[in-house]
Amino acid sequence: MSASVGNAGRAQIDWAGQPVHIEYQWVGSAAPGAPVLVFLHEGLGSVAMWRDFPARLCEAAGARGLMYSRPGYGRSTPRPAQERWTPRFMHRQAHEVLPALLQALQLDPAREPLWLFGHSDGGSIALLYAAAFPQALRGAIVLAPHIFVEDVSVTSIEQAREAYLETDLKQRLGRYHDDADSAFWGWNDIWLDPAFRSWNIEREIAAIRCPLLAVQGVDDEYGTLEQIRGIARAVPHTQLLELPDCGHSPHRDQPQAVIEAAARFIRAAG
């Protein structure tokens, strides 16, 4: 399957012995040799929930961008109602789903200047991919990633569960997901599973070799600054950006600061 800037569609991959359709959309520059930014969404995100941020960043960086919705999200194949994710759900996205999607869209990391741009769970997935395939990336940018589980994360996710059950959150998520229950409960159930409390990827990410920019809001309600500071301890060449007056979504709370920092970082890496 070929893909060009401006195209949107659904790519089929084989995952866990089943055909899965992945929603995707291209934005940005079609110039030959332009870096490719693959956008990895948050735990309740999708292609549409990025809004215009990827296009703005790609314009500033002279890049083309690929957004996609992971299985269970957006217009991609929903999660079966009985399926419960395991503590390695982000590993499987990094090691299985993302490589399969790149292959389906004929994106070869050996030939393309490939970058990952991940937010929250998507940031963790970006880190795991960068660690598992250290020669595949030109660089990675992660916003509010998780490398271990904190009490503040669990508390906020418990509050999200209450909101989903008691407010119109399900209806609001339904604007972005074909199956809001698929998106919400897959994410919420595993994060609140006691087995997930010991999840930790600090040792694994030490294998990252590509340039890495880690961004977090000082007021992040889903994690402390120890998340990105822990990344810097494991991967000493990491550049950190701690943003004041910013919560868990720096690209929404401080979009211009993120765009300027990310575009500068991409240009500096060549």
From TrEMBL:
The keyword Hydrolase applies. Pfam families: Abhydrolase_6. GO terms for molecular function: hydrolase activity. The keyword Hydrolase applies. Keywords: Hydrolase. Residues 37-261 form the AB hydrolase-1 domain. InterPro entries: AB_hydrolase_1 (IPR000073), AB_hydrolase_fold (IPR029058). This is Alpha/beta hydrolase.
